[in-house]
């Protein structure tokens, strides 16, 4: 049985509407090496610059069937999952500039793939877009090309082609216009860098502060390091927060211990407050404690401060 596998999603928002980009492929198609399934970026429903309402209307005829629209993460996406996927991604669509910044890219390639008689293939309306305005210009051009080519009896499909598969969504706290920034990779912050090496620290207090221009230059000149390529820019104002709030087990089986980390529904503990996970401030720690508490009803938690 042939079916579609969805690997990644990136919805872009602009003046023309929402452009839903997806990385997908058939389970029966493999790349030239025949070692893994083939996949490519395309525009969902072939609708650049659309709306949530239009997408929901377009998928409505799909509903009520086998509940197997595509495979994602080893699981079938059913009707409810499909509708959630459209609504959630439409609501959280990103500006092209933010996507490029988060992934250290300068631009994306856009085009219309045209299939003519005799399986002939060509690209039209090719454009390199690095701003929302350039994306809107391409969307308007692509619509015209698609209409013209279909009128001529050809097939035409819009495509926004990201240069790699693991395109990340911008972080909510990413502030591209912040005057001072930090570089973060995973749970670590860039402490120092040289042409032949970089140093990271898990403590934000050790992070080196850069101007946005300096951070961009580092990501360009040190891009040979995977940690730099995958780093993200965050506002340096976060470094000024106290990071002194910890979660303490006040009573119960592990009374006296401190929370270090919560992984896969289990918590790691330490007996020393210095080894505890330090939240940015009291408000952040309280919010985390409220999420954790229901899973451990026999333990009383509290927020303490490591001064």
| Main beta-sheet annotation | 5 strands, antiparallel
Global mean pLDDT: 89
Tell me the fraction of residues in β-strands, as a range: 25-35%
Number of strands: 17
Number of separate helices:
7
Q: Which percent range fits the helix content?
A: 10-25%
Q: What is the alpha-carbon Rg in Å?
A: 24 Å
> Low-confidence spans: pLDDT under 50, at least 5 residues?
none
> What are the secondary-structure elements, in order, as H or E?
EEEHEEHHEEHEEEEEHHEEEEHE
End-to-end separation in angstroms reads 62 Å
The 3D shape can be described as globular
Structural class: alpha+beta
Describe the structure.
With 307 residues, this protein is of the alpha+beta class. The chain is 24% helix and 33% strand. The chain is built from seven helices and 17 strands. It has helices at 52-59, 79-91, 96-102, 132-151, 212-221, 226-229, 282-292, and strands spanning 4-14, 17-26, 40-43, 71-72, 75-76, 108-115, 121-129, 155-161, 180-185, 188-194, 197-201, 210-211, 232-235, 245-251, 258-263, 266-270, 300-305. The strands form six sheets. Strands 9, 10, 11, 12 and 13 form a five-stranded antiparallel β-sheet that branches. The chain has a three-stranded antiparallel β-sheet with strand order 1-2-3, covered by helices on one side. The protein has a three-stranded antiparallel β-sheet with strand order 7-6-8. Strand 1 and strand 2 form a beta hairpin. Helix 1 (52-59) runs antiparallel to helix 2. The N and C termini lie far apart (62 Å). The mean pLDDT is 89.
